[in-house]
Specification:
14% strand
């Protein structure tokens, strides 16, 4: 659509002659309404719907993180500032110039401030194919993980296990101790036994094998955890925020079994519930566990 340009005389004429309910309508609002009227109503409706979907998706992705509060505050400030400047017209020319420079600075600030959220978003976009194990292999993996979790729960032994799916965890495993062994409950029990050199860190499972132990997981950001949950829960939840891995957490203090996925935490999981959750996670990794019944 051709954009109508107005010189100084045209602007003055519009200010003198354009009225709305007895009050002068700002020029920018007149231009906005004129451009909308040039489109078909269904085109405007589709565009507004697409914008709404994008905004909702962003807010849903950021829900429960520090980014949600920051983006709401930033958006509110920018909307109010823009409205005040436009209503002020020629009287706020200098402020409008400063505001335009502020928008440039804000663009760079968003990249820095929302760096963890942007990294998570890029990882999610990279989940193009689905993780799959053979039925017998996945069943053996689930059996051994559940046996280890139940053993650690009974004996109040802390455990932290990440089952890798589509998003690779190679950057983390390089910092740990390579194991490259078949998954077995006995081996996991040995790794997490108190006094072991590796028991305080996490284990990464890749393609049905223990890739590494003694792995330091990133701590969760922008979430508040109860005092019952310590570093293991924060580390497991932090890794789930940055990848699509399914993380099993056993509390050393209470023996409670928890599962973290996609930035959410399910607490108080029984052995049978853990078995069902892991089976769903390996068969349908594209779906969030939080939307499925745990039992």
């Amino acid at each position: 659509m051709r954009e109508t340009r107005y010189d100084g005389k045209h602007k003055q004429a519009l200010r003198r002659h354009w009225t709305y309910t007895g009050r002068r309508m700002p020029l920018f609002l007149h231009n906005f309404l004129t451009r909308i009227a040039a489109y078909s109503w269904w085109v405007v409706a589709v565009e507004l719907l697409l914008i709404g979907v994008v905004v909702y998706s962003v807010l849903e992705f950021l829900r429960g993180t520090r980014g949600a509060r920051l983006i709401k505050g930033t958006a509110l400030f920018l909307i109010i500032s823009y409205t005040v400047i436009k209503l002020g017209g020629d009287k706020l020319v200098r402020v409008e110039w400063l505001f335009s420079r502020l928008l440039v600075f804000t663009s760079f600030a968003i990249v820095v401030v929302f760096q963890p959220e942007l990294r998570r978003a890029l990882i999610r976009l990279g989940e193009a194919r689905f993780f799959r194990l053979g039925r017998s292999a996945s069943q053996r993996l689930i059996d051994n993980l559940c046996q280890n979790a139940e053993y650690c729960s009974r004996n109040r032994i802390g455990a932290l296990i990440a089952v890798e799916r589509e998003a690779g965890l190679g950057g983390l495993t390089e910092q740990g101790t390579p194991i490259n062994a078949d998954v077995s409950a006995e081996l996991l029990n040995t790794i997490f036994w108190p006094g072991s050199m590796l028991h305080d860190m996490g284990v990464v499972i890749r393609d049905g094998r223990i890739a590494a132990a003694g792995v330091q997981f990133p701590l969760a950001e922008g979430v508040e955890l109860s005092q019952e949950m310590g570093a293991r829960h924060r580390a497991g939840l932090g890794l789930s925020q940055e990848s699509d891995a399914v993380i099993i957490i056993v509390s050393e203090e209470t023996g409670t079994i928890s599962v973290a996925e996609r930035g959410q935490l399910i607490r108080g999981v029984s052995g049978e519930q853990l078995r069902n959750l892991l089976a769903d996670a390996l068969r349908h990794p594209e779906l969030a566990l939080m939307r499925r019944p745990a039992a």
